[in-house]
Design brief:
Two copies of one chain form a homodimer. The first copy, chain A, contains 14 helices and nine strands. By secondary structure, chain A is of the alpha/beta class. In chain A, the strands form two sheets. The first copy, chain A, has a six-stranded parallel sheet. The first copy, chain A, has a three-stranded parallel sheet with strand order 1-2-3. In chain A, helix 11 (262-271) links the parallel strand 8 (253-256) and strand 9. In chain A, helix 1 packs antiparallel against helix 4 (80-100) and helix 13 crosses helix 14 (328-336).
């Protein structure tokens, strides 16, 4: 069984994304947002069948942990109420996808974060999504300001309410920023990767997992720059008088395989313990083209993993075992389906 | 011959760093800064002989392209005049090191950047350092706000005056941020690496090297996250309808080898053209410890390169040929010495 831990609904029907525009326009003009539009099951089916489902079948994955489009979360737009309504609309749409394709997709929610706002509504939305919609995790934005980085580090007490709720519900978060309103940072080329690197370094500096030994966080995009600079991070942890990374961070932090070339995947598997790597593609995602050097899509990350010389047990960990361990509610759902 | 392109004077005598503190205190209190202290040649000699020179000899490098301590540039502190006085003091001290050890060190200058300020004084200081002090390049901070990222991207016309001066003087810049005043970003663990990644993506997005075909920029720390995500960057360049990276960026951009473990160096050399890699150690620098996995210092990057299976001509490029090409004034200085 092959589980892709990192898929976004980047192909949502146009009325959904149009509504977001109307919502933000209404906010700017001080008007109430219009009602959310009717979207038919057929429109949702089509948007999935022609994209994610087609690619999953072509590439040979069975299941995707599926969340709203990350770049569209845009927590820096509007205010707390705007984010709450947008998160709810996005999560409800994911729930409909899961309802239509229960064998192939399982939900992870967007949180209604907003710069400077408390995480109270995020805690409530996480509860709703897990307990009412059957979701198995959330995406947590370490920078709801969208490239201004005004929030405290993830190790700050500010974040503890959501971590407490995650532990109570036994769900992990993927640490995932959204679009950037800072012209210095290209979203998928700089902001995403920087955020991954930044979050990891924050975990080294802090002692978050002493307070939350059961907290689990997935850092996407192969852990940002971290595996490439693994020596630097081991050295910095030592300079900061922290325990070795394996004990200090890597019991709680996992990387996906969204690294779009073979040498990068080779490095990831060379330096990071197999128990910490989850198959992911970020599909349909950041880089949609075909690599002229291989003739295959950049984001067909399964090819890179298949090319590795892994024993079966390790391959199984990366393709499904680790995901089932990190997302126990996914494991329970799969078991209920006899899988 | 082995040239280290990335060395900082992190061991400057205490009166120098103490003066910086006094300067900033005076600024905050609205007083004029005190006079710069007397520092003896012996104090400078000792600070170098016991540190950089000792390590160069132990590790087997011949020459270091030497600049003021990057984390102490702190362009976000004080104002334009404070930065100008501090840059001048730092650069004059580098010139004294070079004067005392002309066979081993050659200077690269700190620029008096300041958030929001024009680059006029940076252009003047670059001229002074190159034409009067014999320096061969500069460190350019893409984020003088120290982690707030308030400056426009490096492809913006804001930066053109310094690029024009660099081209006129035929000197490169290393793109190097300083310390971070943003609690989200650890300086050497996040801000440095993020800045490298960010700058590279800015170069992909823009067309800077169409305007400046002779401009040369070194991105330190092995290019940040870029080589690890080389497929992502090739794909993003394609998605943005830019030429292949080799033509679009890599005629003008170079990476150093400040990657502190063998697998990272292996990846760097696997994906980046040999003509774009310059030996560097960032010594005495960011990570000072000994790697328990190897028993050697993390930042002894020469060991990793020596372990590569390179033909002699390629090894010579990385150790000296590329540096002499990217820093032609260094080449001229070496030729004048018969080296």
């Amino acid at each position: 069984m092959i589980i892709d831990c990192h898929g976004h609904y980047t192909t949502a029907p146009a009325p959904h994304t149009d509504w977001r525009e109307s919502q933000l326009t209404a906010f700017r003009e001080g008007r109430p947002a219009p009602g959310y539009p009717a979207i038919s099951d057929d429109d949702i089916r089509e948007s999935i069948e022609q994209n994610q489902l087609r690619l999953l079948r072509e590439r040979g994955a069975d299941m995707t942990i599926f969340s709203p489009r990350a770049s569209a979360m845009a927590h820096h737009e509007g205010d707390e109420r705007v984010s709450a309504a947008w998160a709810r609309a996005c999560n409800d749409l994911i729930a409909r996808v899961v309802g239509l394709f229960p064998d192939t997709f399982i939900g992870v929610c967007q949180l209604p974060q907003s710069p400077g706002a408390s995480l109270t509504s995020s805690v409530a939305e996480l509860q709703r999504c897990v307990l009412e919609l059957g979701f198995v995790g959330c995406n947590l934005n370490p920078d709801p300001s969208g490239g201004m980085w005004t929030a405290p580090p993830l190790t700050d007490k500010y974040w503890y309410p959501i971590f407490e709720q995650m532990v109570e519900l036994d769900v992990p978060a993927m640490v995932h920023v959204s679009s950037s309103c800072n012209p210095s940072f290209h979203a998928t080329g700089a902001h995403y990767i920087n955020a991954d690197t930044t979050a990891f370094m924050q975990f080294i500096q802090g002692d978050l997992f002493t307070d939350f030994p059961d907290l689990r966080l997935v850092i996407p995009h192969g852990g940002g720059a971290v595996p490439y600079h693994w020596g630097r991070y081991r050295g910095l942890s030592d300079m900061l008088s922290k325990p070795p990374l394996r004990e200090h961070v890597m019991k709680n932090v996992f990387f996906d395989t969204c690294v779009y070339h073979q040498p990068g995947i080779d490095l990831l598997f060379e330096v990071i313990d197999i128990d910490n790597i989850l198959f992911g593609s970020e599909m349909v995602g950041a880089v949609r083209g075909i690599d002229p050097q291989t003739g295959h899509h950049f984001d067909d990350t399964k090819r890179y993993i298949d090319a590795l010389d892994l024993v079966d047990a390790d391959r199984e960990k990366v393709y499904s075992g680790n995901a089932r361990r990190v997302y126990p509610r996914l494991d329970a759902a799969l078991r209920a389906l006899g899988r």
